[in-house]
Amino acid sequence: MTTTSPQKTNRTPVRLGDRIFTSLSVGSGLLIFAALLAVFLFLLAQSWDAIRASTEVMGQSGEFSLAEFVGPLVFGTVLAAGLALVMAVPVAVGIALFISHFAPRKLATPIGYVVDLLAAVPSVVFGLWGGVWLVPKLEPAFRFLHESLFTRWFPMFQGSDQEVTSPMRNVLAAAVVLAVMILPIITAVSREVFLQVPRLNEEAALALGATRWEMIRTVVLPFGRSGVVSASMLGLGRALGETMAVLMVMAPGLTYTLHVLAVGQHSTIASYIAAQNAESTGLDMSKLIFAGLVLFVITFIINFIARAIVSASSKK
């Protein structure tokens, strides 16, 4: 009779350092979710008085509605950030391509340093620059857009003469400042993505007879599509939450209008909170915190959509 010996399992013992490292890694990841949840619960708790008061009053006479209060702020926030993104993304991608594929190394390196330094400039500096220097310089161009034939094809440049007045501290001026602010962020991330394109793929396209532009269009841009989307969403996140620059450039207003040259018609959530925070107490403060909660949810939704777009692009 033959006996079989039990099989020995070769298991590597888990060391104490590995356990500690794993625990710290998992804990650090969970800490992010805990912090987000804590912020959400804080905003919800502090804004509950406004939510309850709005529900009670609307049920009786309808004199107070959070939707009427937050709606114009959300509209102005999305409009300013959207205009800034439309202006910044093409320029940022062009600068990133120039640094990564066109400029000589002696020129690309200092330009990259300047772009990185521009991202570190405080927002209040951009606000001073925009309010004191940029707005007067943009006024002739705004006048041309308002009075020329462009208004027939672009209703966004319309508006009554009473609305389009000097100084033109409108949402378009704020969007230009925001575009300059988010430009270095989008450029820096896009540049790093374009530099990761496999060199062999680029050389293969050139060897097949493609021009420099055809190689970029067929190889570089498809490879960096998801990275450009991520960079754009990072820039959009900053544009949505920017406070001081918008507050110092744009004249506030609470209306729904697409006339981007009109003065005193728009406000963003962040700039409105900063302007009203010092004088608000009680229910007014609760309303401001509710506006902050709405901005928090909008930012979360945009980041979620961006993550979905990046995941879908990476699977192609």
UniProtKB/TrEMBL annotation:
The chain crosses the membrane at residues 20-45, 73-99, 111-135, 171-189, 243-262, 288-310. GO terms for biological process: phosphate ion transport. Keywords: Cell membrane, Membrane, Phosphate transport, Transmembrane, Transmembrane helix, Transport. It holds the Pfam family BPD_transp_1. One of its GO terms (cellular component) is plasma membrane. The keyword Transmembrane helix applies. It is a multi-pass membrane protein. One of its GO terms (molecular function) is phosphate transmembrane transporter activity. Residues 74-306 form the ABC transmembrane type-1 domain. It is found in: Cell membrane. Its main location: membrane. The keyword Membrane applies. It comes from the Bacteria. Part of the binding-protein-dependent transport system for phosphate; probably responsible for the translocation of the substrate across the membrane. Belongs to the binding-protein-dependent transport system permease family. CysTW subfamily. This is Phosphate transport system permease protein. It comes from Helcobacillus massiliensis.
